[in-house]
Design a protein that fits this description.
mainly alpha; 4 helices; 0% strand; globular
C-alpha cells in the first residue's frame, strides 16, 4: 500500500464549513475531496476545472445572453479567500 503524508492548509472558517457540507453530500471527507482533486490534477496535467483570472472577470462585462456563470466581485469581503488564491497565483496582475 502507498505511504500517505499529512497536508496542513489554512482556509477561512466559513469556507471550510461550506465545503464540509458539500463534500458530505457526496459522501466524502475533506481529505478524500482534496485527494480526488490532486489525482485529477495529475491525471489531466492541469487544474481539473475552469477558473478565470481576475483581469478577465473585471474587463469582460457579462452580456445578457450569457447564462454560464456569474461575475465574482473580488473586492467583496466574502470573496477574500478567492482573491488571496488569485493573488498567490499571480492572476491579479495584468499580463504584459
Amino acid at each position: 500500500m502507498a505511504k500517505t503524508t499529512f497536508l496542513n492548509i489554512r482556509v477561512y472558517q466559513e469556507t471550510k464549513e461550506a465545503a464540509d457540507v458539500l463534500f458530505a453530500n457526496f459522501g466524502l471527507s475533506p481529505a478524500e475531496a482534496v485527494s480526488i482533486f490532486f489525482h485529477q490534477s495529475i491525471l489531466l496535467g492541469k487544474i481539473p476545472f475552469d477558473f478565470y483570472p481576475y483581469q478577465n472577470i473585471v474587463e469582460d462585462e457579462p452580456d445578457d445572453e450569457d447564462e454560464d456563470g456569474e461575475v465574482i466581485d473580488l473586492e467583496d469581503p466574502k470573496n477574500a479567500a478567492l482573491k488571496e488564491i488569485f493573488g498567490n497565483l499571480n492572476l491579479l496582475e495584468k499580463p504584459e
